[in-house]
Specification:
Blueprint lengths: L5 H14 L12 H10 L5 H14 L3 H7 L1 H8 L5 H19 L7 H5 L6 H12 L8 H10 L7 H11 L2 H17 L27
């Protein structure tokens, strides 16, 4: 597949930005700590499902101290509708304890410190750094991985490969919001099974050969 040129990539993001100038992540949170928890819970789950489970939780719990006080058993009651809730409950309690012990209850602002927390991988760290602290990170989820390969924006065999290409090729002025535009585009337009190509803002730039047509 032929990759998009630098000019096409700039145009790609300019069009997404024109449609949605200030894109936002869809996980509900009240501060950087609840964002971290929500992102950890969202692994192999939908944002909508996580939001449904955490609305009541985040009315009671907004700090690591409050989460530790709540305890694993009661946390499970709140998040039992989310996949892998047993393992996630353990991780949330463990990372909350480490935040208190190592960081005075604050969420750290570096990828290395975040990835040292239980249940926090590179993608989770990138989401937190971007949304909570405004860093121009690009978190590659299934949507970004699909878009990178389908469109010719960043063809790569692994999420890390796609991330590395995007880091190099996305113009600086688009970097802070790049992963939000791509996630939302993948979620609502460039869907996995049947992309909605007739309404796509970047269809003429896209290298995908199996474009859908209007009914």
């Amino acid at each position: 597949m032929k990759k998009l040129s630098d000019a096409e990539i700039d145009d790609f993001f300019a069009r997404l930005a024109a449609r949605n100038p200030e894109p936002r992540g869809e996980l509900e949170h009240v501060n950087s700590y609840t964002l971290l928890v929500a992102v950890v819970l969202s692994a192999q789950a939908t944002d909508a499902g996580v939001n449904k489970a955490t609305r009541a939780l985040f009315k009671k719990v907004t700090t690591p101290q409050a989460m530790v006080a709540l305890g694993e058993a009661r946390l499970k009651e709140h998040i039992k509708t989310i996949g892998l809730f047993n393992a996630k409950s353990k991780n949330v309690i463990a990372l909350s304890k480490l935040l208190i012990e190592r960081h005075g209850g604050r969420v750290p602002e570096t990828r290395e410190e975040l990835e040292a927390l239980p249940g926090v991988g590179r993608k989770t760290a990138n989401v937190v750094l971007n949304i909570a602290f405004g860093q121009p990170t690009i978190a590659v989820d299934t949507h970004l991985f699909r878009l990178g390969n389908r469109t010719g924006l960043a063809p790569g065999k692994t999420p890390l490969a796609v991330e590395s290409i995007l880091e190099k090729r996305v113009p600086v002025r688009w970097k802070r919001h790049a992963h939000h535009w791509l996630i939302l585009h993948g979620r609502y337009v460039c869907k996995a099974r049947k992309p909605d190509c007739p309404v796509c803002a970047v269809a003429d730039l896209c290298r995908f050969k199996g474009k859908t047509v209007a009914a």
